[in-house]
Amino acid sequence: MADKYNNEHRYTADDIDLLDGIEGIRKRPAMYIGSTNASGLHHLVWEVLDNAVDEAMSGFGKTITVIIHKDGSVSVMDEGRGIPVDIHKKTGVPAVQLIFTTLHSGGKFSSKVYATSSGLHGVGATATNALSLYCDVTVYRDGQIYHLRFENGGKLKTPLEVLGNTKKHGTLVRFKPDPNVFSTVDFKWDTISNHLREKAFLLKGVKFVAIDERQNLKEEYYYENGILEYLNVLNENKRKIGDSIYYEGKENNIEMEIAFMYCYDDYNESIYSYANNVRTKDGGTHEIGFKTGITRAVNDFAVEHNLLKSKTKLEGSDIREGLTAIVSLRIPEEILEYEGQTKGKLGTPEAQTIVNNFVYSNFTYYLSENKEFAINLIKKCVASSEVRIAARKAKEEMRSNKKQKVEMIISDKLTPAQSKNYEHNELFIVEGESAGGNARTGRNGLFQAILPLRGKPLNTDSITLDRMLKNEEFATLINTIGAGYGQNFNVEDMHYGKVIIMTDADTDGAHIQTLLLTFFYNFMRPIITSGRLYVAMPPLYCVSKEINHKEIFEYAWDDESLKQAKEKVGRGATVSRFKGLGEMNAAQLWETTMNPKTRHLLKIGIDNPLVVEQRISVLMGKDIAARRKWVEENVDFSEIDNFEIGINNG
Ligand code: 28G
Question: Taking the model in full, what pTM does it have?
Answer without folding.
Answer: 0.84
